[in-house]
Amino acid sequence: MQTVAFDALKAFIAGAFVKLGLPENDAATVAALMAQADLQGSDGHGVSRLPQYARRIRAGGFNIKPNIRVVQEQASTALVNGDNGMGHLVMSRAAEIAIEKARATGIGWVNSQFSNHAGPASLYASMPLAHDMIGLYFAVGNANHLPPWGGLSMLLSTNPVAAAIPAGEEKPIVLDMATTVAAYGKVKTKALRGEMMPVGWMIDRAGQPLTDPTRAEEGMLLPLGGMEAGYKGYGLALIIGLLAGTLGGAAMGKDVVDFNHDDDSVTNTGQAICAISIAAFGDVQTFKSAVDTLVRDIGGSEKIPGVERILIPGQRSDETRIARRRDGIPIAPALMEGLDQLAGELGMKTLGA
Hints:
Elements: E1 2-4, H1 6-19, H2 24-39, H3 50-59, E2 69-73, E3 77-81, H4 87-105, E4 107-115, H5 121-125, E5 133-139, E6 161-165, E7 173-177, H6 184-193, E8 202-204, E9 209-210, E10 219-221, H7 226-244, E11 269-277, H8 284-299, H9 315-327, E12 329-331, H10 333-346
Parallel strand pairs: 3-4
Antiparallel strand pairs: 1-12, 2-3, 4-11, 5-6, 5-11, 6-7, 8-9, 8-10
Helix pairs in contact: 1-2
């Protein structure tokens, strides 16, 4: 696959959004977050989404100049109305508010309504880290691919959760996971790359393994726990959807709009972000030192024969970030073709060039 430097990718995305009508500052914010997604290996949430976002903007599915505002507020909580703006803008603002509240009261919990797809959850959970805070993030996915345990009706989505815990000398612990075995963005990435899915990601309506990502519409994602204990993933998806969607008056269940096939409807996507000040519970450096100790204990613990190392959540993304800054970000040929086509439509220099 062709590789692209991080700064070049970010500039290309920003330029495309400006051509599509976003104000320059907003375009830069969204582009930076999308490029960061690719840099850390979250390929299903980075530049691969640009053609889809462009379609939605052209169809009127996004408000390109939203009035993002707080509509309900207390000392430690807020509800943000995203005015159907791009989710990256809505959640960046929500994270800022959560951090401000945590600084004042020890904890800040902010829900969003009328937001949109915002990329990988870890980007927002990690924002409080710079302020010596723990970050938590929950979201309702932008399409339902998961039935309730034992059912066939698609009433739930991947509903991701992320947590970011600061450390001292070690890297932060950053967990980002869907409540399904695989996020749907990974399915789309497999399709773009012409790769098959592993057995265990999806099944068809007859309960048989589905491994061809181009046939994903015929099947359903399996919840965490798979065929044996999928009731656990189903339960998590339900609770996270209630916290991120229903609590803030956003779409959940049958009200979720499938933005993969609907470019003009308002999705009313719901997300929630929580910032927790470590100082509200004790000495910051003592906490960070304890996290360092735990990280080292886990990494150095006894391993099962054949296992080379035990990874800490976030470690693989950090290593990917380092490698891709050095070697460039890989772009699948099918994706590059779509981006080059979009560049031609917008009168831009192609990314490949």
